[in-house]
Every structure is written in structure tokens, then in C-alpha cells.
Amino acid sequence: MHNTLCRRGASRAAALSAAEVFLRLALASLIFLSAASLLLAQQDSTVQWKSALQALEQRLAENPASSPSALENWRADADALRSSLASFAASHPDLQVSIPAPLGTTSDANALKTHFDALQAAVDQLIRQTPGNPFNLGVVSVNVIASGVSPKPVADGIDQSQIRDLNITNVAKALDQLNGVSIQHIANNRNEAGILVRGFTTRGQVPFYLDGIPISVPYDGFVDFNRYLTSDIAEVQVTRGYSSPLMGPNALGGAINLVTREPAKLFEGEALIGTSSGDGLLSALHLGSRWHHFFFQGGLDWSQIDYVPLSGDFQVHQYTALPDIIMTDHLNHSGYRDEKFSGRVGWTPKGQDEYVLSYANQKGNKSVPLYQGPNTAAAFRSFWEWPYWDFASYNLHTNTGIGEASSIKFRAFYNQYRNDINMYSNDTYAVMNTTNAEQSMYDEHTDGGSTEFTTHLIPRNTVSGSFFFKDDTHKEHGIYPARAPFPLLLPNLVDEDQQSSIGLQDVIAITERLRVTAGFNADHFNGIQGQSYNTALTGLLPFTCLASPANTSFSGCTGTFGPTILKSRRPTRLRTAAPHFSPLPIAPASPCSRIFIPRANWPASRIPIFSRSTAAIGTPATRKHWERKHSRRSSSSAAISATPSSPSMSPIPASQPGQQPSAPCPKSVTSAAKWQTSAAKCIKASSSRSAPRPSHASRSPEATAF
To answer: Is 60 exceeded by the pLDDT of residue 679?
Structure first.
């Protein structure tokens, strides 16, 4: 049987080979024609230039001309920066940049200051004219050293040019390219991608930032990195282990920061479109403009896939517990869609002063694949879909210079997270006629701000101080169509807590080549309100604890903690389920142990339609890199495919007598009022093939690290 299926897969691969060759030739031709009119891809170096200038300026205040050795070291670093600028300008003849002449052998303090000003002017000219310039106010500084290059054991990153060379479409895949960083597939019922940094999770141990703004779902701390697209990202930054105390709380194992792009020319435009196996569609449109004291930009991104194709040699099974699903070589319920709208306006009145208002709105939906391994008698309890997974962000970044040696930054933000899970009763994904069938709706938001002051007034010291504050609010309610009074509408549950942090940091220049960073931070957590449902799901109860076992206040037993932050709440939507494949977003490693995707599958490829500042991507070389990277994982995936079902998945008991079944209900209902008006339709009797699962309401509270 196995050989027959593999032969069928091989025949399908042969049938598609001609189409695959034609498609690759067409794509290669389009890429070649597009690349002929585009600028060459180049790695953005603005952060390194800025860091080098900062180091030179700091040492300039120490009067290096008074010491021959200090003067020689300063001249060497200044010449290295000048050579880097000259090399970049020579490779981009269309840029208009004034590169200063080399510094003379005999120089006084005035000559050094004049040379530094010329270098600074050249850097500013290149930043204004360089495509893909990162949003500098969104950059989080980790350390300051003379060369301006972050030490590899501490910090790492991947920029836009590398992202495009590898055809990476989401942040999870970008982070997977970095050493010490791995994807945590949160598979059971969620189909999410978390991130581990040296084993530390993003749930309370490695904070995630977008342009320095903290991103984290208030309820359980999960962040689905598959949902964040990369077309507008200038750089993905990761610190491992040590993180600056200025960044805020919970940076136990490091930090992750996404830096978005900022326009650099009078007009910039970019349009991309592409496809992938699984009927995938990738597209993006970005426009921007920079004037003397003003800039604006806007973008639209779209990514979707209908299914994840399995290997042509994959053995397709049918399952006794899934009479309404016919399994094929398409991974079941593996589709998703993400769309993003973003905009930004900025005012740059003088010098380093900058005031930027940003907005982003991301909407998505996704399915959760069921087990598709060899155990045809596997039990299935969860039939989930996420009809919407939405994120909206409003934030303000400012930077104001104070004299020549100091500055103060300020960030304010409001982030909203809305999502819905439809928990159906059986594999029809249409009825909710068991007591556990529910539509669970979350509406959460995070708001707060941070400020950071930096000064170079003290010789040989860069002293910084920060303050961070964040308020998390979680709201939820649910609808149980098959529970009395049919439907049962859960009351609105509200949890709230606050976090604050202060940080101090001093970067001390011991010598011209040696820097020491000393820092301190203190974090504070305050639980404002905590609620849980009663057994009947008709009312709200406060938490109780050892310190107050008879607590009757929603603000009691919420706790105040120091650096280690815990949240005691109702358990998450994550449950234990039968093992199943955790699909990669575009094309997973094949479960077939003999052939790795022998059919016409390819990763996402995008072709620029028009561009003023981008390079062609989606080359055949990129696909070869992808195939080499993932082919090494095919053996481990085959081992996963042979895993038997979980022993805890015992047979489901029969339906209770007198249980009220429900008819097919809407897949996405966002308000109780709509459910009440259509309750009669949802209550009509219908046949049920599945029995009730363990109660969703019987889950006990747990302490979740966050």
C-alpha cells in the first residue's frame, strides 16, 4: 500500500514537472527584467554609522588631541567611518554625498571638530537618500562600543535585504534564521508560532517590541509570530541573555524588537506580488515621501494560503471519528489569511528632534489542522476555528535634544487585541450542539508609555535613565448555544493589572578600546482586578488565596510582585489534544519518510511590480536555500507522523438524555444581541455525530508566568 501511494505521488510529480519548469522559467524571466531597472540590494548600515558617530563624539569631548595615542586611535576610527561612507557612496553613484578628505597627521581640537562635523553631515545625507532606512526612533539600543558593532554573543539581527534574499514572509521565519532562536510550535488547538531565545519563552521571559512598543496579548502572554509580516520591516533585532535595563520589565532571557522602515526620499514606492504552493497569494504596496521637516508613509500587505500541500508520497488515511471529512494530500484546515494596513506621519523640526505618530491595523483568520497521522482510530475532541484575529496599534514616538549632549525620548501607545474562537461539536464545523461547544470572544487592550533620558555631560560616561508603565485589560464573554436557557450568554469578565519599571544605565569609557556597561532596574506588578466564572457560568466570582481564603473583592488576591511577574487567571484556551502536525505557514517538511515534497511545491516568491528603492527577490537560488534548510528536517517530521494518539484521549461518552441540540450556527457572531435574535434558528434540533467533550467551564485557574 505504501509503495502504491508513493508511486502515485511520483506519477503526480512527473505530471507536474513540465508545469513546474515552465513556471520557474517564467518567474526567472520576470525577475531578470525587473532587476534590470532596480537598484542593487544593499545592507542597511545606518545604525552602525550612528553608533560610530556617537562614540567619536563622546571621545571628542575628552580632547583626544592632548594625547598622541588617543589622537591616533580617534583618527583611525574616524578614517574607518569615512572609508565606509566613501565605499557606500562609490557603489551608489546616484547619491549626492560630500565625503570629507582624510584627516591630516597633525591636528588640533578644532580640526577634529571640523572633521567630525563633516562626517556627521555625510551620514545625514546618506540616511536621507538611502532606501529601506529603518525607523530610528524604533531602534532599541543594547550597548555602545567604539566600533559600533554589537557583540555577537549578546545581540544579533536580520535586515530587510537578508529577509528578501531568503523570501521570508513572516517574523517567525525571520527569527528562525538566527543562532540561539527557535520556533515554538504551539500546536494543540491554537496553530500558533511562539519563539524561544536560548530556551526562554516570550511569555514573560523575552519581551517582544514593535518599534520599541511592547506587544503581548494581556490574557495569557502568547504572541503568534506567524501573524506579523515582514515586507515593511527594516530589521529584526534580538538580544540574547543581557538586555539593557532601559527596555522595561520581564527581559530575563533577552528581547526581540522589530524596526519598521521609514521613507528617505522625496518619493518612494514599492509594489510586490507573488504566489506559493497551496494557492498562496502574497502582495504588498508601500508609498512614502520625505520633505525637509516632514515625512509620511502608508502601506498595505496581504498574505493568504488555502492549504498546506503534503508530500506526494504521504499516506492518506481516513478516520472513523471524522465521517464528514475526506482526507487528501492537502493538510486539512491549514489555511489562513492576514491583511495589514499601516500609516505614519513625522515632523523633524531640527537636528535630532523627531515627532512621529504611527498606526497599524492587522486582520487575520486561521484554521486549526486535525491529526492526520497513521492512527485511524484516533479520537478527536476539538474542532476549532479562529474567524478573526485582529490587532490595532496607535503609538507616538518623540525625541527631543537638550543642548548638545543630552536628549529625551518618549513613547506612548495603545494596542488592541480582538479574537474569536468557534469551538464546534463535530467535524462538520457547522453545529454547536454539545455542552462544550462555545463561541469565545476576547477584547483586550494594552496602553501605557515610557520615557528615556540620555546625557554625555559627564566625561567618559553615557548615562541613561528610563521609566516604563503599562496597563493590561482583558475582557471576555462567551456563548454556549446548547446550554440552558439556549443559548447561555456568559457575563462579561474583566481582568486588569499594571506593570511599571525604572532603569538606570551607565556606559563607561575605561580606555579608547574598552567600555563597561553598568545598569540597574526594578520592576513592579500590581493586580488591579481578577475575576472568574462560577460553576454555572452565570455569574462572576473573585479569586481566593491562602492569604485571604474568604476574599469577596475582585481586587483581592490579585497580588503585588517584584521582578518575577505572575498572573493568576482562568486557564487559557490551550488544551491537551491528540498529536498532529504543526504545519509551517507556507510549506512544511513532508511526513513521508522516503520523499521530501517531490511535487511542484515552492516557497513564497514575490516579484516587484514597480519600485524606486527595492531589489528583485524570489530567485531560484532562494528556493534552493529553502530546500536545503528544510530537507534536513524531513526525517524528524517522519518520526512525528508515526506518533500514536495520546493515551489521555479516551473514548468520548455518549450524549446525555434530554440534551438540547442546536442547528448550524453562524461561524462568526460578534455580539450577544445577534445571538439572541437568531437563537431560535440555533436551537432547532439536528442530528449529532459527536458526544460532549470535557467541560470548557470546568477548567481550574492556574498561575501563568508572564
So the answer is: no
